[in-house]
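User: Let's play a game. I give you a shape written as tokens, and you guess the letters that built it. Ready? Here's round one.
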């Protein structure tokens, strides 16, 4: 006899399952207490009445009760006695007209069917995962997306959502990811489009789920600070704060006629670095008229150009790591040729490949030969490569050399050569 699935009427306990009132007083005696507790554990664990329980060092009262239930003599010296749960159920029906389940329910509340509960929970987990995959067709077969779902399942996140009645949150996260990457989309707008609530992604658990996916997409650790979260949103083209999103530039030449354009011309006249915010770039159109634009990753490169070359330097744009939304917007308006470089590490290879695809950029000293020269010159100042490997489609030998050496070279080790390029030397 099996217990019912949670939430369904019990067929296991017969017509007495829904009977009202308390258990007969005779069942509240000490001779019944341990047996009924053990029977409850057995039934809840197995989901049926087919188990056998054991009582260690039974008292005289327990021993006599067991003899009466089973009809088998049990010696007073018995260290342990066993009895079938089904026999207890039948004995209760004969004595008090109630089955075991009804008695247990009256004494200490309804009996749980844990196997059925686990099966139902597993079914709900799978429904949530299938729903998420179905609501994100754009990415459902990509490795980072499948890894994200697998991690949420294995670390218990999906289980916690199911138990809290919030399994639909996984589907909403997939709705957000379906709309990414975006192009300079404000976070409230993304939240409204995906969920109908402009605040749904403002520091909420839903935002945390989406950021975990984006971190896998960018091969990063999950963000821990607000600045890391903002930077991760930016990689997907989402604007969290148009004042916080900035880009560092040097000698940006523009023919536009407005306040910000005037500031840039004045800064370029004296070779002074300048920070542009996404807000400034959004207020009035701003186009880079320089015929050559050099993009670096490390501020040390731009700082050296400002200090040593000043106004004689070519236009330099610094990503300061992952390009921000402000950086992408500015470069999308460049009229000249973009030269792009990053550190000689896996992230640098990824950002360079992205720039080639997005801006038709030219790799700037990002060849295998450049790497070997830099590696030999800075061997004592290199560091181990971290993260998963990335290809270098513009020069496949570069990724091969990184794999062979296992060392990363930061771009500040190439500053003399980069400065020569910025002056045409």
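Assistant: Ready! My guess for every position:
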């Amino acid at each position: 006899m099996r217990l019912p699935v949670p939430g369904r009427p019990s067929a296991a306990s017969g017509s007495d399952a829904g009977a009202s009132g308390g258990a007969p007083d005779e069942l509240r005696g000490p001779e019944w207490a341990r047996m009924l507790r053990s029977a409850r554990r057995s039934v809840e664990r197995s989901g049926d009445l087919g188990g056998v329980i054991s009582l260690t060092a039974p008292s005289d009262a327990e021993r006599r009760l067991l003899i009466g239930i089973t009809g088998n003599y049990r010696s007073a010296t018995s260290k342990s006695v066993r009895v079938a749960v089904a026999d207890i159920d039948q004995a209760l029906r004969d004595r008090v007209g109630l089955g075991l389940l009804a008695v247990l329910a009256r004494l200490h509340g309804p009996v749980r069917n844990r196997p059925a509960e686990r099966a139902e929970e597993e079914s709900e987990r799978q429904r949530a995962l299938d729903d998420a995959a179905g609501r994100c067709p754009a990415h459902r077969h990509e490795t980072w997306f499948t890894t994200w779902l697998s991690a949420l399942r294995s670390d218990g996140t999906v289980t916690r959502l199911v138990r809290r009645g919030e399994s639909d949150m996984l589907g909403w996260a997939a709705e957000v990811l379906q709309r990414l990457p975006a192009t300079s989309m404000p976070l409230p707008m993304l939240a409204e489009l995906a969920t109908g609530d402009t605040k749904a992604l403002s520091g909420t658990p839903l935002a945390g789920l989406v950021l975990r996916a984006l971190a896998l997409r960018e091969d990063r650790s999950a963000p821990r600070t607000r600045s890391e979260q903002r930077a991760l949103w930016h990689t997907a083209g989402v604007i969290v704060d148009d004042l916080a999103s900035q880009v560092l530039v040097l000698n940006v030449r523009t023919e536009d006629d407005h306040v910000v354009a005037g500031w840039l011309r004045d800064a370029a006249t004296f070779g002074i670095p300048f920070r542009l915010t996404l807000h400034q770039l959004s207020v009035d159109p701003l186009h880079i008229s320089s015929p050559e634009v050099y993009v670096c990753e490390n501020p040390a490169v731009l700082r050296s150009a400002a200090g040593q070359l000043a106004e004689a330097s070519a236009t330099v744009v610094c990503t300061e790591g992952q390009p921000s939304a402000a950086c992408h917007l500015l470069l999308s308006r460049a009229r000249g040729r973009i030269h792009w470089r990053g550190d000689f590490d896996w992230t640098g290879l990824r950002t360079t490949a992205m720039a080639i695809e997005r801006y038709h950029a030219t790799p700037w000293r990002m060849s295998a030969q450049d790497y070997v020269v830099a590696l030999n010159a800075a061997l004592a100042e290199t560091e181990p490569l971290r993260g998963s490997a990335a290809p270098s489609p513009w020069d496949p030998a570069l990724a091969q050399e990184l794999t062979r050496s296992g060392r990363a070279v930061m771009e500040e080790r190439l500053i003399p050569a980069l400065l020569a390029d910025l002056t045409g030397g």
